[in-house]
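We store chain and fold; thus.
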Amino acid sequence: MLHLLLAVACNEADTEGTTEEVEMTVEAEPETPDLSAPEDVAAAPADAQKTPSGLAYKVLTKGTGTTHPNAWDSVKVHYTGWQSSDGNRFDSSVERGEPASFPLNGVIKGWTEGLQLMVVGEKTRFWIPADLAYGDTPMRPGGPSGMLVFDVELLEVTPGVKPPDAPEDVAAPGADATTEASGLAHKLLAAGAGAKPDPWDEITIEFSVWQTDGTYLDSSKVKGKPLTAPLNELMPGWKEGIVMMVEGESRRFWIPPELATLPGRPPPPSALVFDIELVKVTDREKPPEPPKDLTPVPANATKTDSGLAYRVLQKGTGTENPTETSNVTVHYSGWTLDGNMFDSSVTRGTPSSFPLNGVIKGWTEGVQLMVVGDKTRFWIPADLAYGDTPMRPGGPSGLLVFDVELISID
C-alpha cells in the first residue's frame, strides 16, 4: 500500500482559501521477482566457498537464525533453479508463490549437504555438480542435468528424529552370527517371549536398514509408524528370517541381494542389513494348497467358446445364476501356473464383493455360470485376465487358475 497526503485548496466565494490534508490509499502493483539466471550461473565465482564434495556456495543474505538443520530434519524453503549450461530456469517455488517443504535427507545430495550450512532467514546460492544432483543425463525428457545452480532461502526448520547409527558389524556377520544355506545370516539382539508367526500370518515389526558400507536407508522408528503386512507378501529374506522369531524378539539380519527383492524388481547392489523387532503376530487363515491340476487343463473341465475352462468342485444350493450386472460376494484364491498364490480372500479372512461387470472378463463370464454355494475352479487364459505381461512388478500374468465360492448375489 502507498499512503499519499494531498493538500486540497478549497476556494469558495466570499471565504478565504483553506487547506486540509486528505489521506488516500492507493493499491500498489505487486512486485514481480526477477527470476532470470544470475550472471555467475555458468560457474562459481572466486568468492564462493567450496566443500570437499565439490559443492560451491555463496551467502547472498545473512539469516537471523542461530542453529543449522540436521540431515534428518524437515525444512521449508523458497528456491529457484537454473541449469548452468544454458541458464534455463527449470523450477521455482517463488514463481509458483508456494514454499516447498521436505525432509532434508529425501532430496538430492547437494541440497542435503548445502542446507545444513544455512540458518533460518539466510539466502544462499549453490553450484551443485552433477554427481550431487541428477547426473549428466536427464531423468526425464527436458529435465535438469549437469551442474545446477539454486538460489535458496531457508524459511523454517522442523526437528526430525535422528536415524539410528549403523551397527559396528554392519559390513559382515561376525562369529556370533548364524548363516543359513540360503545365504541369510542373523544374530539375536534381544529375546522375546510371545507367539511365533506362521508363514501366512500378519506381522507388525519395527525395523531399520543400512547398506553394508553403513549408509542409512530407512527406519520405521524414524517414520514413527511400524510396518504391518502379511508375512508371505514380504521379501524372501524377511519371510525366511521372521518365522524364526517370537513376539518381543529383536534380531539382526544380513540379507544377500537375491533375497532382498520382490518378484519383477531388480535386486539391490549389495546386501542389506536389517535390525528387526517383532512387535505383534496376528493369526490369519492358512492359505489353501495349490491345486494339483494347475496345468494342463484337465480333461474333465468344461471349456467355453471364449477359451475359459471350469470344473465344479462343490455343487451349491442356489437356483439362480447372477447376471452381468449383478453384485456378488465371493471367497476366492488365485494361482499362477508355477503354483504361486498371488491373491486370496480366504487368507485375509474377508469375502470380496464387487459388480460382476467390473472385474476381469474371465470372472464376468465364469461367475455367471455359478449358483450360490457353488465352488468352482476356473482356468482363465491371459486374454480374459491380465494379459501376458504383468501390470505391476511381480503381478500375475498369463493363464491363471482361480478357486471361487459364490456366497451371495446382491
Summary: The longest strand covers residues 148-158. The helical segments are 93-96, 109-115, 220-223, 236-242, 345-348, 361-367. The chain has a mean pLDDT of 90. The chain has three domains: 49-158, 178-282, 302-409.
